[in-house]
Each structure stands twice: as structure tokens, then as C-alpha cells.
Design goal:
mainly alpha; 2 strands; globular
Length: about 550
């Protein structure tokens, strides 16, 4: 079941809210817990009922292991460690079997010439998320940092449907206390705040992310078919996918926050305007923040972190990013994407070490020159970070490295730069100048992924698009608004900051007072319009991109 499906919005969610409210106000608290668990299992099983057994066994197995560790005396550390190793091995074993078995076997067959074969296994939804979530719980139980004795609360911690499918990867310290305390029914303010956040996220997904997806789908389909992509075509596809993924994941994160808030539960912040980052280090503090937190706390620190010298620090960073890339998908493109971001981080950390102790221009400096140098450097670092991220997204999106290579070659201008012939009529002098640099002018029908010659390609990729007499220039114009929103507009957490939309750190400041959301008539009307447009702006509920991971 998808958050953006009408059956979820108009049937599943209202029924779940009403049942939960009725039980939490008229019966004992554990009945309300049970209603949310049942609703979450229905939500999960809607896609593939047979995998309900998998998540139920996973919950029961991990809770039983935590109980075994809790009942083992503190001085029997070896036994507790055995329980932990069994749990981690079992969780990772299930993840490897369902997600990576074919990748590993295909790699072995290609490298070693073996002929191993296993039947195709359908990847269970959310297995990457609830596996990491439960490993963290077992590790902290082993360290005696948590001691959860309620199976119901633990089951809800794992299966809670707002965060089950694509995160955030919640931590037991954030969630279990809320499930023990916030069971007093639905409050009107939570319903209003949560609904607003939910529909803002739905708008991002349905209107913005799905709206630009035809551009990226068609360009990457052209590359997969062996087409030679020009400079503007390649950048159209790369930028469109960067915006699609951004608003798809941002939209899902908002929708998860909003849904949880309707039930009086706050989820951790998972997305904080990552395209505003001025370095790759800053980017990873803003993108999929709970995954970064998990990798830092349970992998990077376990490897030694930055406490064993520069060489070991860089090695640990690269290992973490390689595994982070592999976590996203069973394919070499994801491994290479992780390696590329690992390389970015190494360069970023090396640059910071180089700059330590050196004077850096500041906005506090009295002179105009110092302030100008500061903003020039800040703008350059922002632009460099964005270009690096967009280049990496091409590899992330591509089916294989051949496809990625074709798109990257076009982005680098290796296939030439083609501009629409209509420019000749209005910019003859500019056309003459550009021609001197090798820029080619082609008939309009040659340009862009939205032309009639590419109608069949659009049909093959399933893209819902209008084919007409527009090209990549129109595509760039269409992308301009969402790009501006991603770069300059305040995010949902800033807009809703008065109401503490997340647990833990809350993004404060950074917006004009007029944009800070309030419970009043003007904002109610605006929210209603956004909700209506988001609900009925598309008749097809498309899958979220992070459902694939």
C-alpha cells in the first residue's frame, strides 16, 4: 500500500485513526497498541501477504534474543556476546539472502567462471530498514543501554507503518518511550499539524517528483538503448533525476512525519535540505540522516572512527561509504556510487585538515573585499558540491556503468552541444559566436527527450508524458522552479518549527515570520488547496524510489 494511493488516504488511514482513537480512550492502552500493530501488518502485507511471516518471525526472534541478554547476569559477558553475534548474523544472513544472493552469485559466476544458480527471490519490502533497526536494538541491549520488556511496544517499534517501508531508521530511545506514554487518543492539534505535514509531502511526491520523472526516465532509457546523448539532453536527464529523487524522498519523509504526528508520535528528522549543503560532509549530515547516524554509531565507531590516525580514518570512511552504497541496492553501480562519495569525503576531510590554522574570510570582517571573498568561496563550494552530487546520482540511477558512461559523456560535452535551430532566428550573432566554438545547431525535432521521434521510447519506459513541440529548453524551464525550491525555499521542518515536528533536534530559524505556519484561517485555506491538488493532481499512485532499497 502506498501513502499516495487514494485507498490509503481515504480508507485505510481514516479507519486506523478512528479505531485507534476509540480503543485508546475507552479501553486499556495495550488494545490501542494492538490496533496499530494490526494496522501496520495489514499495511505491510497489502503488497505481499506471504512476507508477513518474515517480519513477524524477525520481530519475535530479535525480541527473544534481547530477553535472553536481559536475563543473563552482567558478568556473563561471553554469553551475552554470543547472543549478540547470533542475532547480528541471523539478521544480516536474512538480508544477504533476500537482497544480495543473486548479486553475489552473478558476480562469482562472472569472475570465477562458476555456474551457480538460485531461483529469483522477491525482495521483501523494508527489509533493509527493519534489519538495521533491530541490529541497533540488539547492540544497545548488549551494552545495557536499553531494557524493553514489552513485546507489544517492541513489535510496534519495528512495524509502525508511517516509518516501516522507507524510514526513517528509528532508534529505540526515540520511539519506545513515546509508545509507553502517548496513548491518549487523537488530539485535534496533532491531527491538524500531522495532516498539514503529510499533504505537503504528498504535494512534493505527486506534483513535483512525479512531474519531472518523464524527463529523467526518457533520457536514461535513451542511454540504455545505446543512443548518443548531447550535452543538454544529458544534463536534462541528470538534473531531472536529481530533482525527482530529492522531492520523492523529501516527500516520503514529510509524509512519514505527518502520519506519525497524527497519532501523537514524533519521528526523527531524516531530511534537511541537503542541496543547500556547502560540502559533501554537510550533505551527508542532511541526506538520509538516520542512515548516516546508524552507519556512524554502529559501523564507523566500531571500526575505530577517527581515533587511530588519518590513514585509518580515511579507510574507515571508505568502508562505511562502500557498505552504505551496497545497502541501497545489490549492484555494482551502487558500490561505485558509494566509492565515489567515499572519495568525495576523503578529499573534503583532507581539505579541512589543510585549511586548519589558515585565515578564512568571514562575513564579520570589516572590509568589503573580505566579505566578497567569503561569499565567493561559499558559492563556489556550494556549486562544486551540487555538481559532485549530481554526477554521482547518474551512476546511482543507471542500470549499469555503460548507461552511466553514456550520460556522463554527454554531460562532459564529449558528444557535442546541440541547440535548437529556432535560436538562429532570434540570436543570430550568438549563434555565429557559438559556432566558432564548435556548437552545432540542429532542427528542433532533434532536441530533447520530449519529441515525437522519441514517442516509442516514452511508451517503452511507461512514462506518462505529453509529446509536443518543446525541447530541452522547456525542460530546463520546467526544472527551474523545483531547483529553486530545493536551493532557496525553507523546508517543511522550518515552516512547521513552532510545533516541534520531529523528535530530538529540530531545525529552527532561517525563514521569514510570514512563512512560519500557524493554525489560522489563511493557512487552513492554503493547506486545503495543497491537499486537494496533491490528492487529485494525479490518478496514478507511483511507487516511491526508496521502496526499491
Amino acid at each position: 500500500m502506498l501513502f499516495n494511493a487514494h485507498s490509503f488516504i481515504f480508507i485505510f488511514l481514516p479507519i486506523t485513526l478512528l479505531v485507534y482513537h476509540w480503543l485508546s480512550t475507552r479501553t486499556q492502552a495495550h488494545y490501542a497498541l494492538c490496533s496499530l500493530i494490526v494496522a501496520s501488518l495489514v499495511f505491510y502485507g497489502w503488497w505481499e501477504p506471504r512476507y508477513l511471516l518474515l517480519i513477524l518471525v524477525s520481530v519475535g526472534f530479535n525480541f527473544a534474543l534481547s530477553e535472553c541478554m536481559n536475563r543473563t547476569a552482567g558478568n556473563e559477558r561471553l554469553i551475552r556476546r554470543c547472543y549478540l553475534l547470533i542475532g547480528v548474523a541471523a539478521n544480516l544472513g536474512a538480508l544477504v539472502w533476500f537482497k544480495y544472493a543473486h548479486f553475489l552469485i552473478d558476480t562469482s559466476n562472472a569472475v570465477a567462471g562458476t555456474q551457480w544458480h538460485v531461483e529469483k527471490v522477491i525482495l521483501p519490502l523494508a527489509i533493509s530498514f527493519f534489519t538495521f533497526q533491530q541490529i541497533a536494538f540488539l547492540v544497545d541491549t548488549y551494552r545495557s543501554e536499553t531494557r524493553e520488556r514489552s513485546l507489544l511496544r517492541y513489535a510496534l517499534f519495528v512495524t509502525f507503518f508511517p516509518q516501516l517501508i522507507a524510514g526513517p531508521i528509528v532508534h529505540h530511545k526515540e520511539m519506545l518511550p513515546q509508545f509507553a506514554q502517548n496513548l491518549s487518543g487523537i488530539k485535534l492539534q496533532n491531527l491538524i499539524i500531522g495532516g498539514t505535514i503529510f499533504f505537503l509531502g504528498l504535494f512534493k511526491k505527486v506534483i513535483i517528483a512525479d512531474g519531472v520523472s518523464p524527463y529523467s526516465d526518457t533520457v536514461f532509457a535513451m542511454a540504455a538503448a545505446g543512443e548518443t546523448l548531447t550535452f543538454l539532453e544529458s544534463w536534462t536527464g541528470a538534473l531531472a533525476y536529481s530533482i525527482q529523487l530529492y522531492f520523492d524522498f523529501s516527500g516520503y519523509s514529510d509524509m512519514a512525519l505527518g502520519l506519525a504526528r497524527m497519532f501523537g508520535v514524533r519521528l526523527p528528522l531524516n531530511f534537511n535540505s541537503p542541496y543547500k549543503a556547502h560540502s559533501i560532509i554537510d550533505f551527508w549530515r542532511r541526506w538520509h540522516m538516520t542512515l548516516s547516524r546508524f552507519l556512524r554509531d554502529y559501523l564507523y565507531f566500531s571500526l575505530g572512527g577517527n581515533q587511530r590516525g588519518a590513514a585509518r580514518t580515511y579507510t574507515n570512511l571508505m568502508i562505511v561509504m562502500l557498505l552504505g552504497g551496497l545497502w541501497h541496492g545489490a549492484g555494482w553501480t551502487f558500490v561505485i556510487w558509494g566509492a565515489l562519495h567515499g572519495s568525495y569525503l576523503l578529499v573534503n576531510h583532507a581539505w579541512r585538515m589543510f585549511m586548519q590554522g589558515r585565515a578564512v574570510p568571514s562575513t564579520d570582517a570589516a572590509g568589503f573585499k573580505q566579505r566578497a571573498l567569503f561569499w565567493l568561496g561559499r558559492t563556489a563550494s556550494h556549486a562544486l558540491t551540487l555538481v559532485a552530487v549530481v554526477v554521482a546520482w547518474v551512476i546511482f540511477r543507471a542500470e549499469n556503468m555503460d548507461v552511466a558512461g553514456r550520460v556522463l559523456a554527454g554531460m562532459a560535452g564529449m558528444n557535442g552541444v546541440a541547440l535548437p535551430v529556432e535560436w538562429l532566428n532570434n540570436h543570430a550573432s550568438l549563434a555565429s559566436t557559438l559556432a566558432g566554438f564548435g556548437v552545432q545547431f540542429q532542427p528542433l525535432a532533434y532536441m530533447g527527450p520530449l519529441f515525437t521521434p522519441l514517442r516509442d521510447m516514452a511508451v517503452l519506459t511507461g512514462a506518462q508524458m505529453q509529446v509536443d513541440s518543446v525541447g530541452t529548453i522547456t525542460a530546463f524551464v520546467s526544472l527551474a522552479v523545483p531547483i529553486a525550491i530545493a536551493l532557496f525555499w525553507p523546508n517543511t521542518q522550518q515552516i512547521m518549527q513552532r510545533f516541534d515536528p520531529t523528535v530530538g533536534a529540530v531545525v529552527k530559524g532561517g525563514i521569514p515570520t510570514a512563512l512560519a505556519w500557524r493554525i489560522n484561517v489563511p493557512f487552513a485555506v492554503l493547506s486545503a488547496l495543497i491537499a486537494a491538488y496533491a490528492c487529485f493532481g494525479s490518478s496514478v499512485a507511483s511507487q516511491f524510489l526508496y521502496f526499491q532499497f
